[in-house]
Amino acid sequence: MLKMLVKNVANNSKLLNSRFSNTELGFVVFGLTLISFIATTANICVFIAYIKNQSLRTASNWLILSLAVADTWISAISINFYTVYLVYGYWPLGKIACKFWLSTDYWCSQASVAHLIVISVDRYFLIRVPLIYRPVRNLRLKYVIFFVWFLSFVLWVPWIISYQYIVSKQDVPVDKCYIQFLTDSVFLTIFTSLSAYYVPLLTMFYMYIRMYTFLQKRKRTVDRVKAPNYFSDLTVTSVSCDSVTQSNTCLEVDSTANNKVLSQACQTLPKIKYKNYDRIKKLLILIILAYAITWLPFNAFSVISTFCNTCVTAPLWNFGFLFCYINSLVNPFCYALGNKRFKAAFKSMFIFKEINKNPNK
């Protein structure tokens, strides 16, 4: 699509967007194509790693895989439609293609955001109440993933397609492509911004703050624990283990000695490396910042434009759209490449290719 687009634009100067010079237009096409390629490749690597490595086929990675589905569609399809719209300066593909682009784009974008919320909640429960959550996790996650896609579909697709028939008017010009109800109703605009950005952001922030504080408390407990004391004498009081897990699940009863002793979970606790805590903290901060920054401009512009039609110019809208798409590029690096097993899988894939190229090494 992009190759044909560049050829047509080069052969017909009338199609050029007057806001860009030929050089600027070339940079725009190259930049968006590069973003699309890198984001699509990164998300496809998630699929390849998942298929080739049995150890990656866990419930946690179901969420990552489903997230990659949404981000792959956005990076491979939505960005290219957006590039056509941006380069031409108007929508040249007709109303059916417009509805298709908007419906699938907003559907997958909403699903991507919803996955981030589910991942944050899932990780919180895994850290906070692992023994209660793990037995029911696999079955529930399957239903949750289905519900995420279904809810994201219901929130956008039916209304994008049918809104003009509901209100019995079509206000979107033939050469434009945008969602009509976002410009017709202040209530709908604010509601969609809340559901797509502000509420998810607050939910993620709350979940990750809870995880962060819990991990900090656990780290302080580990700092006070002396490993030799554990392994030299397994008889301990309930206070030492309860301070780590905040429950009695870490203790087991020794039937022969009638004493409470450390379970395997507590015995391995002193082996936890402090750098793991720092890695988790950095990853959590990165996740929140990536989502907050990439989605903020578009959602802020959406709210502002409902009260001031002239405040948000076309370049600002383009900037907001682009930043939303960049989130699909960031996600696989935050959630997949930040996972040790995925890192090992990707590394083995690239090393294998290198060995094949250099068999004598």
Automatic annotation (TrEMBL):
Species per Swiss-Prot/TrEMBL record: Hydra vulgaris
GO terms (BP aspect): adenylate cyclase-inhibiting G protein-coupled acetylcholine receptor signaling pathway; G protein-coupled receptor signaling pathway, coupled to cyclic nucleotide second messenger
Compartments (UniProt record): Cell membrane
Keyword Phosphoprotein: no
Pfam families found in the cross-reference section: 7tm_1
Family that this chain belongs to: Belongs to the G-protein coupled receptor 1 family.
TM stretches of this protein: 25-50, 62-91, 111-131, 143-166, 186-209, 283-304, 316-338
GO function term, MF aspect, one: G protein-coupled acetylcholine receptor activity
Residue intervals of the G-protein coupled receptors family 1 profile domain: 42-335
Full protein name: MAch receptor 2
